Amino acid sequence: MSRVGLIERFPALPWVVSYRTIAALDADLVDCRACPRLVAWREQVAHEKRAAFADQTYWGRPVPGFGPDDARVVILGLAPAAHGGNRTGRMFTGDQSGDVLFRALYDTGLASQPTVVSADDGTELYGVRMTAPVHCAPPQNKPTVAERDRCARWLDAELELLMPTLRSVVVLGAFGWQAGLRAFADLGWEVGRPRPKFAHGARTVIRRDHRELTVFASYHVSQHNTFTGRLTPDMLVEVLTAAAENAGLAR
């Protein structure tokens, strides 16, 4: 769609047409200071650090999405972890939740290696981009509704830039499910009423302009879910495999 066409489609969402590339979007995103509570927390954590990472320099800024800008699958989570993405500068890395996710991506043929430790370790994602409704680490991993809504501009713009190639969306957790469906509705996708309910293994098809996207749900890769067995590696691989197959990504 032309830039004029985008402006006509999204008159109430001017940020959606503000960027021509993912790189330009990410360059602005990492300088965002819109949420005072999140700014204070991410910077406090980056200063105080965890003892195990005392010799490392924390990122301490909003964490951009990670993955190619022509992805066919988007993985949508919650927010960066205080000592994970807030430390490494890469979404869903640097903690045990990220370890579970990247192992599953590797086993599904969507990542170049099973373990990710830093933003410069050479990891590649194949046809997949990872992002979140909230780009700063929140206290207790609980962003407020107002923080989610303030950060929505970045998700809206990122999803629209990915639309030419996007075929599947994998949502980790109920927070991401609600935020993701809301974003797609704002972008003109027919999401359905009432909104589809979150459950592990759930999926829904949304439509816009004769196009379809399939949205897949998984429990979040939080330590609570993985340590208790509520989410097993096989369960996560099953969802990722279904999303990859739907998007035409061969293993």
UniProtKB/TrEMBL annotation:
<keyword id="KW-0408">Iron</keyword>
<dbReference type="InterPro" id="IPR044147">
    <property type="entry name" value="UdgB-like"/>
</dbReference>
<dbReference type="GO" id="GO:0004844">
    <property type="term" value="F:uracil DNA N-glycosylase activity"/>
</dbReference>
<dbReference type="GO" id="GO:0033958">
    <property type="term" value="F:DNA-deoxyinosine glycosylase activity"/>
</dbReference>
<dbReference type="Pfam" id="PF03167">
    <property type="entry name" value="UDG"/>
</dbReference>
<keyword id="KW-0411">Iron-sulfur</keyword>
<dbReference type="GO" id="GO:0051539">
    <property type="term" value="F:4 iron, 4 sulfur cluster binding"/>
</dbReference>
<dbReference type="InterPro" id="IPR051536">
    <property type="entry name" value="UDG_Type-4/5"/>
</dbReference>
<dbReference type="GO" id="GO:0046872">
    <property type="term" value="F:metal ion binding"/>
</dbReference>
<keyword id="KW-0479">Metal-binding</keyword>
<dbReference type="InterPro" id="IPR036895">
    <property type="entry name" value="Uracil-DNA_glycosylase-like_sf"/>
</dbReference>
<dbReference type="GO" id="GO:0006284">
    <property type="term" value="P:base-excision repair"/>
</dbReference>
<keyword id="KW-0234">DNA repair</keyword>
<comment type="similarity">
    <text>Belongs to the uracil-DNA glycosylase (UDG) superfamily. Type 5 (UDGb) family.</text>
</comment>
<feature type="domain" description="Uracil-DNA glycosylase-like">
    <location>
        <begin position="64"/>
        <end position="240"/>
    </location>
</feature>
<protein>
    <recommendedName>
        <fullName>Type-5 uracil-DNA glycosylase</fullName>
    </recommendedName>
</protein>
<keyword id="KW-0227">DNA damage</keyword>
<keyword id="KW-0378">Hydrolase</keyword>
<dbReference type="InterPro" id="IPR005122">
    <property type="entry name" value="Uracil-DNA_glycosylase-like"/>
</dbReference>
<keyword id="KW-0004">4Fe-4S</keyword>
